[in-house]
Queue: 2 jobs
Job 1
Amino acid sequence: MKRIVTGIVAFWVITVLIAGASVFAAPIVMRLAETHPQDYPTTKGDYEFARLVKERTNGRIVVEVFHSKQLGEEAAVIEQVQLGAIDMTRVSISAVSSFVRDLDAFQLPYLYRDADHMWKVLNGPIGEEILKKHEAFNFVGVGWFESGSRNFYTKKPVKTVGDLKGMKIRVQQAPLMVGMVEALGAVATPLPYGEVYSALQTGVVDGAENNWPSYLTTSHFEVAKYWISDEHTRVPEITVGSKKVFDKMSKEDRAIVLKAMKDAQPFQFKLWVDFEKVAEKAVRDKGSVITQVSPQEKQKFMDAMKPVYAKQSPEIMAVVKKIRDVK
Ligand code: GTR
């Protein structure tokens, strides 16, 4: 009898301990670095991604978003992700392209016909393949967000491609972007995002390039009020994870995280499209001078970018051909 009681008690204790361990186990916390402010469309997309991960793992995995460059500027953060010191980051593919050079095929000037074309590419087999390629560089390609098109803005009026000649233009820290601005006869100045406002203000650079939402939220419009809608690039946003960190996760958890990013995408896209309009109106109201380029002038921008393509490797150009063939 005594034995049976001891057995029942032992069984009960073990059951309680196991149940307790799973209920009270500390969640896995993943830090995600974001350069934009809390209410920016990509940051809100990060929060939606975090919400889905938490919900689908019953709180076992918690993605903590560190917005407004709390964890540093993009180039430095990406290195930390590669080392495993930061779990994930949402950045522009330009910033990652210094590591994953094949990304150049996805950010060449005048590559996509429009946003639809870009999304067909990114969400199709070509996009999947480049996400997988990140593993060779100790990253995990988690997924894509929208970032509109990029345009030049300057301190002095610019109306034609020729007006950019000789101007010092801030670019993202990526070889392709340096080459692109040089092809226009301008002087490329690669700088971290957070340094651009003062560089414009003090005249270290004469201009920069970005999308409407960034132009507004960085207040660059205050110090460079001439905007030219040349739409030279569509550079998608990407979330990259640390391979070191992801390799420790179960296959199931990894799948949940990747799927959550896919499912956060339409949410971010909608916010983006709405905010793009709000941002454009806001900078117009605040006095920015906007030049809408004519189709003829846009063709001149395109022609000027041809040397950028001529410099690409046969491998990159093979991907470019595949991208262009996506209908
Ligand atoms: C923004 C992008 C940022 C950052 C920035 C830049 O459009 O969302 O991640 O790369 O451009 O120009 O540095």
Job 2
Amino acid sequence: MEKNSKKTFYITTPIYYVNDIPHIGHAYTTIIADAIGRFKKLQGNDVFFLTGTDEHGQKVEKAAAERGLTPKEWADQVVGRFKDLWKALNISYDYFIRTTEPFHEKGVQKIFQKLKDKGDIYKGVYKGWYCVTNEHFLSEDVPLEKDGYKICPECGTRAEILSEECYFFKLSAYQDRLLDYYARNPTFVRPPSRMNEVVSFARQGLKDLSITRTTVKWGVPVPDDPDHTIYVWFDALHNYVTAIGYDWNMDRFERYWPATIHLIGKDILRFHAIFWPAFLMAAEFPLPHIVFGHGWWLKDKTKMSKSKGNVLDPHVILKTFRSDPLRYFLLREIPIGLDGNFSHEGFIHRVNSDLANDLGNLVQRTLTMIQNYFNGKIDEIDEENEGDKKLRLEFDAVKEKVLKLYENYAINRALEEVWAYINSVNKYLADNEPWKLAKDTTQRKRLGRILFQAAAAIRTISYFIFPIMPESSAKIWDYLGEEKLIQEELFSELKFENFKLEQKIKQSRPLFPRIALQDFLKEEAPPPAQPKMEEKMEYITFDEFKRMDLRVGEILNAEKVEGTDKLVKLEVDIGTEKRTMVAGVADVYSPDELAGKKVIVIVNLKPAVIRGVESQGMLLAAEVEGKATIPFFPEDVPAGAKVV
Ligand code: MSP
């Protein structure tokens, strides 16, 4: 499947939105990509592994405004969270792209211009139902609800009618070429069920795609027409080409493009398997080899996502475990194409049984016996008998199977094979009972042979699991007294015989301590409702408090921000001047109720643009179950009075 003699392998994850903080779902895609990338390196490929963040668009604009930050300031914070998590999870990416990087923005504009010059992008007017949460127009077959609105089928929120002048991409012109491409490359989309989904969607007829917005300011401007912003998906998808050098390092771009595999969640299949190849065809770039749509991690049977409030934070697990058990669980539990239900019970159970019992015990007791009976160095072995030979030959069969399964991205099946081998080694020890032989000095060579076979098998096992559990596997390798790193031995060079007689074994430590479910759940439980002030409170100084300019403001005028349920635009007299502010209280207070009221406002908060309106301050309110309660002053308190 490799595209040239250099055997490059370019693997990508989606770039994650920065309106969300990373959760187990994001970690899943990135861990799969990391494992595949590591495996491909073991095969001697020149691997490039890309991940990053998708930083433009309305959702990011909104998330930042809610926090009184600029979109870039907010993005910087979230990027830090993603990078920290990738570090904690041992993710070995080669580049982390941010779509706010100038080279990316320039590259996107260049491609846009190229397509416009060719006539594949043209100007028109689009009217349709738009989902703000997912930043896309709903497809026309989404039915109208009883109340006259359309609901986004992906996130369940209410869509809005949007009509605007915009640029279109001539997707319709690519329908036949796409269908032809799918027919000639039936494994382009994986797993096969997703290929069928894509083909049947394309067969229904592809309409031209609106790819710019005038309502969104936070994005890449259209070249020579800056009132229009390039649609976040057109912008985001091109990260796959700009990150490796399109338009700024063409040698590198040509070395790695086309991507070998775009790994994505099934939620964004259409963007990657229909729009993206069409954009690439238009730009006359070769197409990626594979788009792999993996399943979702569900919590309580629904997709984990911030909008549903059911996300699991990987840090809960990382507080107690290192990254390997989490990586193992996510990759072992389900095949890459299917959904899985995540539970901490399931996690603990698998870690205790597969890692602590099967693998951990095998390594610990074998290496301890080598320490105790041979002072860490097996120096005498007898001839291989049938049982010894069987264990060695089984390795050859396992290696072949594991290789094929890894190559087909069937990681969970590969791990099953490795675990079957672990069980064979455990059985070999149980059958041969080396602890009994150790009591008989005439059996020293036999004892040596048994421990030698077991150690040689463990060496291969630690090699097999390296892509999934790099940290533990490197530890085992080190305990075995290996001098080079695992990465320095190619998969093709891996042999049972690579473990040498007289290799000096180091003192080992238990790899995967057993954690009882109750103990873990206790750890995970939220802190007591009434934490002691001195422990939990983050204090600010009086000087810091004094920096806030809090005043009484009189609401002169209030009106709802069109197209939103929650936002109201206020004109507020703060004593010295009139200010415009946007507040998220319209679900509780009508504009009439607000007009004439005196409220507390913070007037030196950095202005932020919310839904196209510059908010020059913020009113204070209590939040009770997500709803605002505003404290109002009596009428005789003058506007502008300081609140201290
Ligand atoms: N920014 C777009 C992608 C642009 S790619 C050019 C986006 N971002 S996202 O933050 O919503 O992340 C989407 C990806 O995160 C999914 O495609 C999937 O890979 C991963 N997951 C998010 N939630 C998930 C689960 N609950 N389960 C598994 N993976 C999930 O879409």
